[in-house]
């Protein structure tokens, strides 16, 4: 199947944008101008200004001499590219390959897309009518090549759809400028009386090359088809992406869920066949009003389990606002990984088919966020707050085993907090201590356990730890910093037991 392209030409791109933003300019002739070599030059003009003889490239002083009441607005140099990029992203609802054609056009690769709208004529009509209803003056054409589509969109006088293989017939009556030639080449052709492409398209290539250079032949080949021309999409195509256009706009949560189920089935079937699973996925809905609704999920392990992934998305479907309706759904998996045949050992669990824990973590992350879930591994340090380290993923393992020969609290404070203590000396446990304004009477105590400071990391005093139980049965892990040397020592609380 031959490729098909649409070229879209915004005849007054930036001027139309100013009119859309400021409706009062609709009936006012105006131009956009910027300084060049000490004088203001017209960069764009609206239809009313053009009808009064104002053209792009004129000096503003000359333009005002032609039309004294002309309004002049400062041009925004980056506006054209920004608008084209925004419109190219909008066109992704029609095709996954949309490219900017700076300074005033778009190129769409529509191969295999038009049948979803009932054919190329309806497809093109839908695009153009929506752009025009937004306030833009556009022309567009469809052809087998980018060159022919570009030429017919700007200079064509008949049908905007060039049937497959009929590029030459569509180009014959058009001027040389339709081939995107440089002004010097166009002037040379016109000087010789070659005002239409039919006047020189049949000439020997050696003659054309000798008189006009290789550029003319390259442009002819690009328009007729022998030479391929490539475009750069505004958004790189995701390697794992599925699309679902809708015959009628979807406005209900049930319809959105059904679309999501279909896309997940398509994507997961592909991933499973390749031995992969997704780690993150984005579900997008392109609305009728031009806005894009999207929700995202992440998983703790590579997964292509459709039911599980659907449950993760269901937690966020309510955030999608369909408004007037969604006409295209897209599911992307930007991050995928190989699915390991054997799951890693996780908290002393080693089962090849045990995915329940991973899926539970995914559901918790979907509700509370990934930042609410942590996994820690033992680290080789004496100091309690340094004896654990966060794991980067569930696959991380440590060669250091968890220490089980000493009692440790289930909740360890990140930073010990100072407390007031009443205690005999020198090494007796406290009898009373006050924490956050509340006085605790100690009924049972165990200790001390001395933990020395790691002198190769920093200098300071050792710690003597005690496990205390108060009158309510709550247990605490506290320590005295350093020896009792006649002065009042400092005491700290560091953790809580279950």
Automatic annotation (TrEMBL):
Name it.
Protein ImuB
Keyword Lipid biosynthesis among record annotations: no
Which region is the signal sequence? none
Q: Does the entry feature the keyword DNA damage, yes or no?
A: yes
Pfam families recorded: IMS (PF00817)
Q: Which UniProt keywords apply?
A: DNA damage
Q: Which GO terms describe its biological process?
A: DNA repair
Record Gene3D superfamilies: 3.40.1170.60
Q: Where is the UmuC domain?
A: 9-151
The organism's lineage is:
Bacteria, Pseudomonadati, Bacteroidota, Cytophagia, Cytophagales
| SUPFAM superfamilies in the cross-refs | DNA/RNA polymerases
Q: Which domain of life is it from?
A: Bacteria
Q: Which organism is it from?
A: Dyadobacter koreensis
């Amino acid at each position: 199947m031959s490729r098909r392209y649409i070229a879209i030409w915004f005849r007054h791109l930036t001027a139309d944008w100013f009119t859309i933003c400021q409706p009062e300019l609709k009936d006012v002739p105006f131009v956009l101008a910027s300084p060049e070599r000490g004088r203001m030059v017209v960069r764009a003009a609206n239809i009313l200004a053009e009808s009064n003889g104002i053209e792009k490239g004129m000096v503003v002083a000359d333009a005002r001499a032609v039309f004294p009441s002309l309004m002049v607005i400062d041009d925004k140099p980056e506006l054209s590219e920004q608008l084209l990029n925004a419109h190219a992203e909008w066109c992704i609802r029609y095709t996954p390959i949309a490219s900017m054609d700076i300074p005033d056009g778009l190129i769409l690769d529509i191969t295999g897309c038009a049948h979803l709208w009932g054919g190329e004529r309806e497809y093109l009509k839908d695009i153009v009518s929506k752009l025009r209803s937004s306030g833009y003056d556009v022309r567009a054409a469809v052809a087998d090549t980018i060159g022919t589509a570009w030429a017919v969109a700007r200079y064509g006088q008949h049908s905007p759809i060039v049937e497959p293989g009929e590029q030459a017939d569509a180009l014959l009556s058009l001027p040389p400028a339709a081939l995107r030639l440089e002004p010097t080449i166009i002037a040379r052709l016109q000087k010789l009386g070659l005002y239409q492409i039919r006047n020189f398209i049949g000439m020997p290539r050696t003659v054309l090359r000798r008189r006009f250079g290789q550029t003319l032949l390259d442009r002819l080949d690009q328009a007729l088809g022998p030479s391929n021309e490539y475009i750069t999409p505004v958004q790189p195509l995701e390697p794992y992406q599925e699309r679902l256009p809708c015959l009628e706009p979807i406005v209900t949560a049930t319809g959105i869920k059904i679309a999501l189920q279909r896309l997940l089935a398509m994507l997961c079937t592909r991933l499973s066949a390749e031995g992969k699973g997704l780690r993150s996925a984005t579900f997008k809905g392109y609305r009728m009003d031009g806005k894009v609704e999207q929700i995202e999920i992440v998983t703790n392990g590579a997964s292509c389990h459709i039911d599980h992934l659907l449950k993760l998305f269901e937690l966020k479907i309510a955030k999608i606002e369909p408004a007037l309706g969604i006409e295209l759904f897209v599911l992307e998996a930007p991050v995928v990984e190989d699915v390991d045949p054997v799951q890693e050992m996780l908290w002393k669990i080693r089962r090849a088919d045990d995915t329940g824990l991973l899926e539970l973590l995914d559901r918790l992350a979907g509700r509370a966020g990934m930042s609410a879930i942590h996994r820690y591994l033992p680290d080789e340090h004496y100091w309690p707050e340094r004896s654990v380290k966060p794991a980067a993923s569930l696959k991380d393992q440590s060669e250091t085993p968890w220490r089980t020969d000493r009692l440790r609290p289930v909740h360890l404070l990140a930073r010990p907090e100072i407390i007031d203590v009443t205690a005999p000396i020198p090494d007796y446990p406290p009898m009373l201590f006050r924490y956050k304004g509340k006085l605790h009477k100690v009924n049972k105590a165990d200790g001390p356990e001395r933990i020395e400071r790691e002198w190769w990391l920093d200098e300071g005093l050792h710690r003597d730890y005690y496990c205390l139980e108060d009158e309510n049965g709550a247990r605490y892990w506290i320590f005295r910093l350093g020896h009792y040397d006649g002065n009042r020592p400092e005491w700290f609380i560091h953790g809580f037991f279950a």
